[in-house]
Amino acid sequence: MSKTTAITVKTRHWLPRLVGFDAITFPTTIYTRLPALSGRLLVHECQHVKQWAETGRTLFLLKYLADYFRGRLKGQSCMTAYLGIGAEAEAVKMAKQYATWQAWSAGESFPVTIKEAA
Ligand SMILES: [Zn+2]
């Protein structure tokens, strides 16, 4: 049986507004400036909860900041450096996969053909 993690969501919070994002996650608490999280944003932030847990808090934070400042030292803009953070790239990818699955399940084009075995 896998270990479960309790996640707290704090809505209409000042913290993400301070850094200019819709949401920010510190180990198991998701702070959002919004009144509610969309499914896609929830998946993105839950990926960060998973990363915090798997990497360990100190190492996660060090790696996250090192990725960001590595980009900035290369002359990247704040946004480009942010999107270059490994943890962010992974969370963006997960949220995109979720959005794709959601579109498929809503009856939009499904790019596979399933053949029943005889
Ligand atoms: Zn993120």
The run of helices and strands is EHEEHHHH
Contiguous uncertain segments of 5+ residues: none
What proportion strand?
5-15%
Tell the overall outline: globular
Please outline the major beta sheet. 3 strands, mixed
Any idea what the radius of gyration is? Answer: 17 Å
Span from first to last CA? Answer: 36 Å
What is the number of independent domains? 1
> What's the β-strand tally?
3
**Sheet with most strands: strand arrangement:** 1-3-2
Helical coverage, percent range: 55-70%
Number of helices: 5
Distinct bound molecules: zinc ion
**SS-based structural class?**
mainly alpha
Could you please describe the fold and organization of this structure?
It is a single chain. The chain has 118 residues and is mainly alpha-helical. It has one domain (8-100). The chain contains 5 helices and 3 strands; from the N terminus they run βαββαααα. The protein has helices at 14-19, 39-55, 57-73, 78-83, 86-105; strands spanning 8-10, 23-26, 29-32. Strands 1-3-2 form a 3-stranded mixed sheet. Helix 2 (39-55) packs across helix 3 and helix 2 (39-55) packs antiparallel against helix 5. The protein is globular and about 55 Å long. The model has no long low-confidence stretch (mean pLDDT 91).
